[in-house]
């Protein structure tokens, strides 16, 4: 047992740092550091830089563009990016649909879809949740009826993240209602420009437009866009979850902590820095202990390269900590959590800030981060998974 | 980075597990706790024979030269068995002090005996007013001829009654809460001027109150440098915290496994309790606390020897906070989920709960270490 980074890990870390230093534009770095809204081009720019270096899809098979890294290298790679304020990777293409395509797709599908995911010329979104199907995903009702060489798709998907930018959507659709709900689901790739698709924004409590409703009215999807076998989509969806779960949160949590400490260091309380306020200092120390615990829990769990259901606890604890950091940051700015000027959250706002510049994103982020315990399987669903799959209850 | 045990460590773990299975049935432990000395001298001899007492001690003094992770493996299993032998006080702390601060003569004389099970040590540091501050020392040691005369009170000294020598912190200079001016002494038990009041603890161990009234020791009883006891205590107590975290992890795992098993067998309203979602989620929360505690236990045992004193202290305090929080939750919920049965002395659950509760008070509770972490 040891927790030394080996010499080759440290060399790798230095290589990643150097790459980021040479390739991340300073204005983009500042946008991320300040917690401002990112545009589509911001994400694409960074993803393409990574791809030019061969690092955009490190978890893919090597012959398709992946890299053979150890779990430690994956950990370092993700954390270095976050600590250097790189834009986050949009997971829907590279981390979510791509593994399904290269595992269950046909040779033709791999050829057709993977290159544009790698070079970020295709933006993907995820069509899972529906108005009547949240935690009970298998009850989904969006129907795909076979008609000659096409499926005719009707229904509604919701909470579709950044669908406003998307060229493609991967959807779970119902192709049979004959047996158990899980057994009549298929995995379909749909071109967002197909007639009959309507995307309408859902504005969330923080005032942002991240998620959408996507309506399908008699949308014609060629049958060659079906992944694997008809009615086996649930299996592929569960496989996708495994990839989703191997995501590290330690880096982004540390970045939140940096921001929190920087804010608290500039705030005053009782004539001293807020950091010297005993009540705040105790909460901050408590948070730091929890974060340190999470970091080592994550290292232990993801060190087993492909974690099983026990990785659900990383989702629960990690998102709890994301929420807690955003809450402490909001508390730290006190009254200046109140002002809300939407344009101040966008890069290039020219008016002077109301109050300290760092205060503006704190309340929106606090409200926005309530989502983390709800999305990707609510934390209650994660507890259901753990109790059944790990504790055998 | 690697969190797996070596082959030797796995063998050690297996061997301790066998010992616990053979010697530490709840009824056997109950008898030990009720006996005169409170543990088994035969077990102690067996631990010496199996090399466990020598494990962490240096090879040149009859030890095996193991590190913190080896001690961790042992302590985790001791936690699973609720072992009452004075391993922590005698070997981890006593041996730790000798290794970190002992003179060549002290090491040569005492370490081989410690490794062989022929010598036991205890550590007297807490005082009525000191709470968890190791440096709040009013007990005085005054120069007297070539040696010292020690006077004062020491509270809750674990396993003092059966120790051959007691390591005592006393002030040789400075104000009562100064870090400078604390000196450690090796004091013979039952020496003149030392009176003990021995008693059992709530979790089945033994401890004593010590009154020292002009206890005379020679100059060679000083352990470490005169006035330099604070740094020595910080180092060794850090090691003790790393070890007790492992004991706590062992306790928690037993509670988590036992409670899960109980929920699957106990039927109410016509179904096993494990079918109720509210209990499933509680059980998952217990499981997560166990996993977090284990992560911090590994972390602190890997970092307790770190060269950077701030990083070392932060690791120690962070681990103690997490162990305190996790131990409280797992202990309380184990009793709660066992219902009335959890309240009985007959069931082992309560005994683990009591041990975990007392572990939080050892070497500073979670509030103390949270404050220390914040101040670092």
Q: How does this model look, in words?
A:
The complex is a heterodimer of chains A (393) and B (376). Chain A has 393 residues and is α+β, with helices and mostly antiparallel strands. Chain A has 3 domains: 83 residues, no CATH class; 109 residues, Butyryl-CoA Dehydrogenase, subunit A, domain 2 (Beta Barrel), CATH 2.40.110; 143 residues, Butyryl-CoA Dehydrogenase, subunit A, domain 3 (Up-down Bundle), CATH 1.20.140. Chain A has 12 helices and 10 strands. Chain B is an alpha+beta fold and 376 residues long. Chain B has 3 domains: 102 residues, Acyl-CoA dehydrogenase/oxidase, N-terminal domain (Butyryl-Coa Dehydrogenase, subunit A, domain 1); 107 residues, Butyryl-CoA Dehydrogenase, subunit A, domain 2; 146 residues, Butyryl-CoA Dehydrogenase, subunit A, domain 3 (Up-down Bundle), CATH 1.20.140. Chain B has 11 helices and 10 strands. Chain B has a 4-stranded mixed beta sheet, with helices on one face. In chain B, strands 2-3-7-6 form a 4-stranded antiparallel beta sheet, with no helix packed on it. In chain B, a hairpin with a 2-residue loop joins strand 9 and strand 10. The interface between A and B is large, with 37 and 39 residues.
Shape of chain A: globular
Number of helices of chain B: 11
Biggest sheet of chain A: strands, sense, closure?
A: 4 strands, mixed
Number of domains of chain B: 3
- Strand order, largest beta sheet of chain A: 1-4-5-8
Multimeric status of the protein: heterodimer
Annotated CATH topology of the largest domain in chain A = Butyryl-CoA Dehydrogenase, subunit A, domain 3
Estimate percent helicity of chain A.
Answer: 40-55%
Sum up the overall morphology of chain B in one term: globular
CATH architecture of the largest domain in chain A: Up-down Bundle
Which radius of gyration of chain A do the C-alpha atoms yield?
A: 22 Å
Percent of residues of chain A in beta strands? 5-15%
């Amino acid at each position: 047992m040891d927790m030394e980074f080996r010499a080759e890990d440290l060399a790798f870390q230095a290589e990643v740092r150097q790459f980021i230093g040479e390739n991340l534009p300073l204005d983009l770095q500042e946008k991320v550091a300040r917690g401002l809204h990112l545009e589509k081009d911001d994400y694409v720019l960074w993803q393409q830089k990574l791809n030019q270096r061969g690092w955009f899809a490190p978890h893919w098979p090597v012959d398709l563009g992946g890299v053979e890294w150890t779990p430690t290298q994956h950990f370092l790679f993700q954390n270095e990016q976050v600590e250097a304020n790189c834009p986050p990777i949009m997971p829907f293409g590279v981390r979510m649909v791509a593994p399904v395509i290269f595992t269950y797709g046909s040779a033709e599908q791999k050829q057709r879809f993977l290159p544009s995911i790698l070079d970020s010329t295709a933006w993907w979104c995820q069509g899972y949740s529906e108005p009547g199907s949240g935690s009970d995903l298998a009850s989904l009702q969006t129907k795909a009826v076979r008609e000659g060489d096409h499926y005719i798709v009707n229904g509604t998907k919701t909470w579709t993240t950044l669908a406003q930018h998307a060229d493609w959507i991967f959807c779970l659709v119902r192709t049979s209602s004959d047996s158990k709900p899980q057994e009549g689901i298929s995995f379909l790739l749909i071109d967002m420009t197909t007639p009959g698709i309507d995307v309408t924004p859902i504005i969330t409590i923080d005032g942002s437009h991240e998620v959408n409703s996507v309506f399908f009215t008699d949308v014609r999807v060629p049958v060659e866009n079906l992944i694997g076998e008809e009615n086996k989509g649930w299996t592929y969806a569960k496989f996708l979850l495994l990839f989703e779960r191997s995501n590290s949160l330690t880096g982004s949590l540390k970045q939140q902590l940096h921001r929190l400490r920087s804010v608290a260091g500039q705030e005053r309380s009782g004539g001293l820095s807020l950091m010297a306020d005993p009540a705040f200092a105790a909460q901050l120390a408590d948070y730091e202990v929890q974060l340190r615990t999470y970091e080592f829990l994550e290292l232990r769990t993801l060190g087993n390269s492909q974690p099983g259901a026990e990785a659900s606890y990383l989702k629960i604890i990690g998102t709890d900590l994301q929420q807690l950091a955003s809450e402490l940051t909001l508390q730290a700015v006190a009254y200046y959590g109140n002002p809300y000027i939407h344009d101040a959250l966008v890069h290039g706002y020219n008016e002077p800030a109301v109050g300290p510049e760092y205060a503006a994103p704190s309340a929106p982020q606090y409200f926005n981060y309530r989502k983390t315990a709800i999305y990707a399987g609510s934390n209650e669903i994660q507890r259901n998974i753990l109790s059944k799959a790990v504790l055998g209850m | 980075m690697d969190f797996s045990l070596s082959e030797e460590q796995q063998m050690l773990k297996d061997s301790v597990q066998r010992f616990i299975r053979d010697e530490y049935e709840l009824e056997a432990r109950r008898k030990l706790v009720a006996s005169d000395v409170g543990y088994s001298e035969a077990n102690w001899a067996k631990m010496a024979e199996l090399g466990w007492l020598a494990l962490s001690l240096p090879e040149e003094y009859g030890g095996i030269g193991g590190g913190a992770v080896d001690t961790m493996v042992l302590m985790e299993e001791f936690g699973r068995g609720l072992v009452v032998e004075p391993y922590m006080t005698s070997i981890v702390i006593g041996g730790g002090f000798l290794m970190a601060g002992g003179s060549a003569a002290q090491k040569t004389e005492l370490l081989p005996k410690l490794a062989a099970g022929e010598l036991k040590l205890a550590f007297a540091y807490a005082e009525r007013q000191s709470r968890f501050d190791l440096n709040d020392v009013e007990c005085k040691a005054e120069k007297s001829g070539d040696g010292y005369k020690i006077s004062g009170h020491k509270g809750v000294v674990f396993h003092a009654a059966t120790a051959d020598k007691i390591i005592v912190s006393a002030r040789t200079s400075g104000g009562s809460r100064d870090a400078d001016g604390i000196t450690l002494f090796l004091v013979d038990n039952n020496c003149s001027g030392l009176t003990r009041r021995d008693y059992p603890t709530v979790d089945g161990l033994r401890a004593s109150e010590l009154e020292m009234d002009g206890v005379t020791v020679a100059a060679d009883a000083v352990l470490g440098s005169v006035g330099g006891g604070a740094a020595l205590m910080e180092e060794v107590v850090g090691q003790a915290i790393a070890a007790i975290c492992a004991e706590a992890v062992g306790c928690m795992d037993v509670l988590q496994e036992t409670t899960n098993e109980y929920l699957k067998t106990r039927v109410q309203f016509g179904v096993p309790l494990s079918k109720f979602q509210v209990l499933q989620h509680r059980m998952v929360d217990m499981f997560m606390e166990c996993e977090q505690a284990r992560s911090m236990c590994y972390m602190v045992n890997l970092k307790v020897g770190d060269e950077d004193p701030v990083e070392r202290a932060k690791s120690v305090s962070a681990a103690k906070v997490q162990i305190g929080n996790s131990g409280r939750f797992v202990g309380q919920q184990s009793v709660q989920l066992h219902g009335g049965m959890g309240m009985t002395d007959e069931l082992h659950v309560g005994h683990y709960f009591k041990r975990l509760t007392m572990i939080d008070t050892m070497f500073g509770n979670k509030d103390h270490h949270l404050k220390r972490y914040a101040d670092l």
